[in-house]
Design brief:
The protein is mainly alpha-helical. It contains three helices and two strands; from the N terminus they run H-H-E-E-H. Strands 1-2 form a two-stranded antiparallel sheet.
């Protein structure tokens, strides 16, 4: 039986992840920085994207705990503020990824639109 060497970790060629990011966002930073060449503006947009990612995850935890509605001081049921934070953070994340041209699209094995579109 052969012993296989472990896969090498990606070599990060840019700056280290910013200190304020979560471990999950830092992991994404390392993956993206090791796979794409970014200029200074690209690093700033990436940092913004990952801050949005962290904010989205924080809001999702609150919504999972509290639900999607909250009662205001007058007893009226309203959308929980964390739902709005989640929505805005998700939109910011997607805008930043688009600005970096990191759109994720399904592979298309044929010319033209995918079936059913």
């Amino acid at each position: 039986m052969k012993n296989f060497a472990p896969m090498p970790k990606p070599q990060v060629t840019g700056p280290k992840p910013p200190k304020g990011l979560s471990p999950g966002a830092k992991s994404w930073w390392k993956k993206i920085v090791s796979g794409w060449e970014l200029d200074e503006a690209g690093f700033l947009v990436l940092e913004t994207a990952l801050e949005c990612f962290d904010r989205m995850r924080q809001a999702q935890k609150i919504v999972a705990k509290d639900g999607i509605t909250a009662t205001d001081r007058f007893g009226q049921v309203k959308v929980h503020p964390a739902v709005l934070v989640e929505r805005d953070a998700k939109a910011g994340l997607l805008r930043a990824l688009r600005a970096m041209n990191l759109q994720i699209e399904p592979l298309n094995d044929a010319i033209g639109r995918p079936p059913g579109s």
